[in-house]
Each structure stands twice: as C-alpha cells, then as structure tokens.
Structure to design on (253 residues):
C-alpha cells in the first residue's frame, strides 16, 4: 500500500525502546490511545523492567528525527497458569513455569500507517516469544470496534478465542474486547472432547468466580476491581479517580 502522507521514501528500522525515547513514547501513547497510562508504565518500558519493547524509526527522516519513534510495541512475559487463557492452552501441569507473551500496547504514527510497520513489530514479538521453549502463545486484547487492528491480527493468523463483555471502561462507557492468540512452540488450544470439556469447566468456573466477585463488589460498594488480571501494572485508584478515561491495566485498545 502507498502512503500519500509522507513525502520521502522511508527507511524503517527496528530497535529496542530506550530511555531517550521517553518523551516521544509518552506523547504517542497520549495521541494514539483513548486511555491514559501512568508514569510507572513508561519508566518500565524505557528501562526494560519486566517489559520488552521494539521501536520503529525512519532513518531517512531529516532534521535530527531519524532516530525518533514512529511506531512501537510493548509486551511482557506472564505465567500461563496466572492468565485468563491458561484454560485454553494444553499444557503439562507438571511444568508450572509455562509462559505466554502478552502484547500491552501497539501503535504506529498515522502518517506511517499501512506500510507494514505494525506487522513487522508483531513479528518481532512472535520471534521473541518463540525463542523461549516455555512460551506457548502471544496474546492480546483489542477493543471490539478497532477494525484496523482486528484485520491486522486476523491477517497475521492470530485466532480470536473470546469476546469479553464490558472489558474496557472508557469515559464511563463499557466496551467489549476480543482476545486474540497466536500459538508458538507447539502451543495449541484443546481439541479432543475431554480437553474441550476440561477447558469448558475451567472457563465456567472462572466465569462464576468473576460473577461472584462482582456481586460481592456491588454489595460492598467497594472501588472498581482490576479487570485485566494479566497486567500487574495497574493504574492507582487515586490516579483513576482523576481520569476522565478509565482503564484498569496496560492493555492494548
Ligand atoms: C492498528 C495499527 C497498529 C496498524 O498499523 P499499520 O502499521 O498501519 O499496519 P500494517 O501496515 O502493518 O497492516 C498490516 C495489515 O493490517 C490490516 N490493516 C491495517 N490498517 C488497516 C485499516 N485501516 N483497515 C483495514 N485493515 C487494516 C491489513 O490487513 C494490513 O494488511 P495489508 O496491508 O496486506 O492489507 C495502526 O492503525 C494504529 O496504530 N492504530 C491505532 C492504535 C491501535 O489501534 N493499536 C492496536 C491496539 S490493539
């Protein structure tokens, strides 16, 4: 696809995000996403604290911008058994250290879209995940109306395995999310009748637990509980009260 908005022929390169990217990274997240991320998240990204990241830069940009971010992806390794999709993977319970890679944020500056940059960034994540024998999948959430992103994941052979009702709360309104998975290292979803039954029971148990937790929460009138369990970097309750846009984790939208 040809992008009419950039006048020069870009030379796109990929590298890890580094401390000098902090300001641009924060600005891009604020420009691109409808949710706000706290400082701790950005610090963790630029210092590679529990988060892996890749930046896309255009080496042919003039006036000292040749190393400035024009795209990014951030991700983290999580223990499979601690995620909401642990039940959707066949894995050996005798190996509790099995992991997944969760894509937290992905974005490309508007003028550089439709050039294959997001596809390349995701390929970097898949390559990284595949390099860990214990890792069985890359997964992410996407808000249900984000058609470009949904097309991208489908085109890259991610499987949509779940629709999570009301997963996002943005400006007081709930939106569903889709959960997309890309299996690596022989990871796969259950397929024999017994495996499907075990997965279904496990899913129903976790759903019942969620409903029970919500009921308890309503009874107690306590503040909002985190909805996205994979991300340990939760926006603080104090910070959330000050936001017009609310999000309980650093998940992609
Ligand atoms: C979604 C996003 C990351 C795509 O980035 P991109 O660099 O333009 O994507 P690519 O050029 O790599 O596109 C790869 C594929 O995605 C799909 N795609 C990308 N943009 C699309 C659009 N606007 N409409 C339909 N499909 C689209 C296409 O299938 C495309 O393949 P093709 O070119 O062979 O048709 C970008 O639009 C973006 O930053 N959006 C805002 C932030 C966001 O939504 N992030 C994802 C949150 S989960």
């Amino acid at each position: 696809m040809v992008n009419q908005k950039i006048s020069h022929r870009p030379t796109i390169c990929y590298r890890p995000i580094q401390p000098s990217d902090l300001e641009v990274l924060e600005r891009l997240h604020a420009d691109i996403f409808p949710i706000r991320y706290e400082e701790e998240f950005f610090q963790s990204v630029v210092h590679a604290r529990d988060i892996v990241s890749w930046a896309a830069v255009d080496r042919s940009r003039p006036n000292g911008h040749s190393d400035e971010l024009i795209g990014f992806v951030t991700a983290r390794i999580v223990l499979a058994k601690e995620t909401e999709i642990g039940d959707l993977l066949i894995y050996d319970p005798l190996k509790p250290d099995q992991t997944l890679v969760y894509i937290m944020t992905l974005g490309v500056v508007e003028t550089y879209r439709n050039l294959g940059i997001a596809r390349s960034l995701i390929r970097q994540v898949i390559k990284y995940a595949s390099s860990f024998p214990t890792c069985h999948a890359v997964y992410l959430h996407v808000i249900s109306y984000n058609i470009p992103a949904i097309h991208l994941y489908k085109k890259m052979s991610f499987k949509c395995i779940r629709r999570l009702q009301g997963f996002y709360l943005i400006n007081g309104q709930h939106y569903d999310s889709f959960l997309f998975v890309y299996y690596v290292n022989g990871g796969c979803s259950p397929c024999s009748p017994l495996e499907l039954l075990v997965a279904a029971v496990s899913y129903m148990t976790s759903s019942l637990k969620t409903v029970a937790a919500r009921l308890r929460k309503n009874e107690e009138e306590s503040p909002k509980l985190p909805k996205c369990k994979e991300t340990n970097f939760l926006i603080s309750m104090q910070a959330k009260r000050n936001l017009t846009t609310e999000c309980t984790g650093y998940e992609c939208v």
Observations:
- The pocket of coenzyme A is lined by residues 1, 32, 106-108, 113-119, 142, 146-149, 151-152, 155, 252-253 (CB under 6 Å).
- Confidence is low (pLDDT under 50) at residues 221-248.
- Residues 12-241 form a domain with the Aminopeptidase fold (CATH 3.40.630.30).
- Strands lie at 12-15, 52-58, 69-79, 99-108, 135-143, 159-170, 173-183.
